Amino acid sequence: MWKRLFTTIRYADAESASPRMHSDFEIESQHLDGYNKLSEEMKSFSIIAQAQHINYIKEKLSSKKQLVTRSIPVTIDKVQIQSAKSSMKKEELILIIESLIRSLNETNWPQFQGLKSKRKDELLIILQEVRDLTN
Fold first, then answer.
1. Which candidate, 5, 70, 2, 78, places its Cα nearest to that of 35?
2. What pLDDT digit, counting tens, does each position of 52-101 carry?
3. Is 69 within 8 Å of 109 (Cβ atoms)?
4. Hey, where are the domains in the chain?
5. How many CB atoms within 10 Å of residue 134?
6. What is the model's pLDDT at position 58?
7. CB crowding 11-33: b at 16 or more within 10 Å, else e
8. Which of 26, 47, 48, 59 has the smallest number of CB atoms closer than 10 Å to its CB?
9. Counting Cβ atoms within 10 Å, is residue 5 exposed (0-12), middle (13-18) or buried (19+)?
10. Nearest 5 degrees, angle CA 121-CA 124-CA 125?
């Protein structure tokens, strides 16, 4: 019975006895299904999720306004659709900028203080600056 199962799933003893080769993350995640490339946001998922979690907790504790969240885009195509700058609200821009800032070196953080007091056009410029620094 076990032999038949192992044959069905194409299990080979030689595979488990030899050391596994770990692929480079970049190569492994470059193509999901041959057509879509993994977005930078998905690669830094834990950083973005942590920033959104902190913002969520702060908003819930202060209960001032409704929280603005966006899903994390998986593919580059989804990023382009989601990041149509003209359709973003000020709160969404701030959320994206804050999540990207967390992926920067801590020495760059102070230059992006006081985002909530900035106008939308200023936030769009800051967003581009942060994106340039992350690339």
1. 78
2. 888 888 877 776 555 556 667 777 777 776 666 667 788 888 888 888 88
3. no
4. 36-134
5. 13
6. 80
7. eeeeeeeeeeeeeeeeeeeeeee
8. 26
9. exposed
10. 95
Residues 6 or more apart from 134 whose CB is under 8 A from it? Answer: 40, 100, 103, 104
Q: Which of 46, 41, 117 is CA-nearest to residue 81?
A: 41
CA 122 vs CA 34, 82, 97: distances in Å: 38, 19, 12
Q: What is the DSSP letter of 74?
A: -
Using one digit for the tens of pLDDT, what is the confidence trace for 70-79?
667 777 777 7
Nearest to 101 by CA among 58, 51, 57, 56: 51
Beta bridge partners of 75: 38
79 or 25, which is more confident: 79
Partners of 38 in the beta sheet?
75
The two structure tokens encoding residue 1: 């019975």
Q: Output the six-digit token pair for 75.
A: 């593919």
Please say whether the beta carbons of 52 and 95 come within 8 A.
yes
CA separation for the pair 68, 116 (Å, rounded)? 14
